[in-house]
Amino acid sequence: MSSPKSTNKVASGHLYKYSFTSSSLGGLETNINVFVPSSSSSSSSSSKVPVLYYLSGLTCTEDNAAQKGGFFNAAADAGVAIVFPDTSPRGAKIDGEDDSYDFGSGAGFYLNATKQPWSKHYNMYDYITKELPAKVDQLGLGIDTSRASIFGHSMGGHGALTLYLRNPGQYRSCSAFSPICNPTACPWGEKAFKGYLQNPADEASQYDATLLVSSLSPAERPLDILIDSGTADDFYKQNQLLPEHFQNAVRERGYDDQRVQVRLQDGYDHSYYFISTFAPEHIKWHAKFLHN
Amino acid sequence: MSSPKSTNKVASGHLYKYSFTSSSLGGLETNINVFVPSSSSSSSSSSKVPVLYYLSGLTCTEDNAAQKGGFFNAAADAGVAIVFPDTSPRGAKIDGEDDSYDFGSGAGFYLNATKQPWSKHYNMYDYITKELPAKVDQLGLGIDTSRASIFGHSMGGHGALTLYLRNPGQYRSCSAFSPICNPTACPWGEKAFKGYLQNPADEASQYDATLLVSSLSPAERPLDILIDSGTADDFYKQNQLLPEHFQNAVRERGYDDQRVQVRLQDGYDHSYYFISTFAPEHIKWHAKFLHN
């Protein structure tokens, strides 16, 4: 894994693509893209840069947000690395794996599957939270994985929120574009949980940001969250995203609107045009925590 | 053409896609993307915004640079519209039209073909310089097409340079990422000119930026040009781009390096990662001329 499959210079830094075999994903090969700003140095720990994990949405790979997200000039200015994993295992050879856009390949939902035949490979939760940081450490790219934050889009926004909420201390801040905020209450989440989990009624709540936050309190678990969702987003209109459910839940628990911000952005849709508009602001917001 | 096929809000403005029948392209349907910043107003001529035409490279459509170029936040800040045309006619039903990536579909080379059977449809030069500005005027989007500049990438950089050089007064400034600077002396240009032009030996010089600039002088024809090309660009290494030929030609004619800048950017390749790195700087540079 020490030699990248490809390298592109961008924003004075470099974007590297790596392939490696993932034990969390049952021994399948997986790809990541890693942006490293020019300010990083692997030789001195004081000049290592902090890292942002970006989780993509349904149908995406590690490439889409790297190509269309508009993150790199802002990340270079902020002195922050960005790691883009894939959205699911690939090539598990499970019947029906490639049949729908919202389940199976490209749709790992950042959970650990408990249902056969998915449970051997579909363990994106373990992959992102445990295996990936260790892999990034091994790259020797001057990235300090002890200073990490997480963000994502749509299904990846769901991933970012749930991983952040469930792992205190692992991520300093969490942001999301158009996240699926309450997956147990929307068609995408219901389908995924029914398909991946043996007992969705018991297991799904640990993968639902709105339910997770409902048992937290600002005194015991301070949160720093920034959510942007567009009002012209068809999936928002179809009640797949439900940002209001999350907003109501955090308010009920007494979280401050300044530290847990849920913003509805007028007229924006679900596309990378929306992401790229607010990408620099999200990077800058995370950098405050990562350089603190 | 008054109703867009699609609309996406981006960078507080909007990206519209339109389809229309082009007479220059022999009656074929063609698509454009148009970014309009929120600062524009169609109701008052004083608040109309100037326009940048972006010409894409081989294999691209009107979409690639809109999705991957990273232009819109900078264009919004600068108060500049951007028009993205396609790179060739589509669906002319000419034998071999879709056979190679560097000739025919996706490879119009921004010229008027004189050779059969291409000459009926492959007239991108007339389309971009004459028909497109009139179409943009008709859209009623608050764009002032009398204040225009032009830029592009690779084959589109060739297009931007040659259209700028041949049409004094039409474009205020010209910039290019990795342009084909001397197409009569490189394989891409030789193939295109031989294929599209009846007498390449006579006709090709009018489509070659290095040859065109060799007959100009700073006193009679002041130029404002910004070129960026990457040293790790495989096509640069294969002598498809030849920026040094253009640089030498402008210096020989006595042009000032400050107003005609040819910059080699260390380590960058031919990709959109390169374009997106320098996109904000190009937009800002053009805005000086467009708002003057």
Automatic annotation (TrEMBL), chains A, B:
GO terms for molecular function: carboxylic ester hydrolase activity; S-formylglutathione hydrolase activity. Gene3D superfamilies: alpha/beta hydrolase. InterPro entries: AB_hydrolase_fold, Esterase-like, S-formylglutathione_hydrol. It catalyses: S-formylglutathione + H2O = formate + glutathione + H(+). Keywords: Cytoplasm, Hydrolase, Serine esterase. Its EC number is 3.1.2.12. Serine hydrolase involved in the detoxification of formaldehyde. Belongs to the esterase D family. This is S-formylglutathione hydrolase. It comes from Pseudozyma flocculosa.
